[in-house]
Amino acid sequence: MAKHFLFYISENYAFQILRPLQDEIQRRGDTVAWFVEGNNVNRAYFQTQETQLPDVQAVIDFHPIAVFVPGNMIPSFIPGLKVCVRHGFIGFKTRKKDGLNYSFIIRDCFDLYCTHGPSMTDTFKLLEQKHQFFKVVETGFCKMDPFFDHSMVTDKGAATSTTAQKDERPVVLFSSTFSPRMSQAEALLPTIKRLSQDTKWRWLVTFHPKMAQSTVDAYKAAQHENLTFIETDNAMPLMLEADLMLGDNSSMLVEFLMLNKPVVTMKNEHPKPHFINVTDAEKIEQSIEYALTRPPELMDKLDDYAAQTHPYTDGQSSARILDATQDMLDNPPKLKNKPFNLIRSIKMRKKLSYWKW
Hints:
By secondary structure, this protein is an alpha/beta fold. The chain has 13 helices and 13 strands. Helix content is 35%, strand content 15%. The strands form 2 sheets. The chain has a 7-stranded parallel beta sheet, with helices on both faces. This is CDP-glycerol:poly(Glycerophosphate) glycerophosphotransferase. Belongs to the UDP-N-acetylglucosamine 2-epimerase family.
């Protein structure tokens, strides 16, 4: 009999995170359904073959044995083992009241945390010992599976022309965060225009869907033979095609680094030794030229960072997540009860219009 698994989502980024996991569930002959919380998800992103459940009662009737969440919270009244797969790598944002990194805040919702690599696992293991109501298993990040198993990428190269795909020049991918305070997209437009006029590199540009429309329009207007702007909700094919990424504070930087490819940033707020950061746009060209040589002093630091952040390059993180989930279902550990937050429960019941107890 097919097992039932639920994907509980509240943001559009969940699609790219969970679809590799969906593929693995279905490969095993089991069933997946999706449930959307709130209004931030664009339902047009659902594929025709994907099952959506309309309300909490439909979720309960579906009888999921486990629910996977690429976020921070899930209501306690949603049935099934609650598994947090994370929505990204460790960030730098901290809580003002105590300086705690938001990546490590425990909100008393989950039974199992699936971590990406030692830098995340080590801290979560300490939290596991402290709280004693959840388990932690290092699995890798399911979102990264297609980056390493290219058979999972269905639209690689679709964004660029056949002629461009045959072009053997190095490809520079530029992306920027949508946050006006941290974005360098507008400031770098003159530099990118100038550098792209040179024929030594081919330029691809893509932005977060929330990027200011005026910035998007400016880059669209700047397109020419060596500079292509691509609007997409899936930058993976572009990342696989590129040889180097130019950015600022975009979360895409970490994913690109996991591909063992160099990164150059402009005014990154948290510069690190495994990428090249500049504060003067005039230094971008020489930094790109240097990084494209893949110098050992840079690539060795990148290797060390990847080994701590996401050491899995086999494209099997989804399989490990499912195995860890099934093991916890088959061999339930002795854990304390999760703390019950009445106010949060009432708020979520109101939000989801569900009042059965």
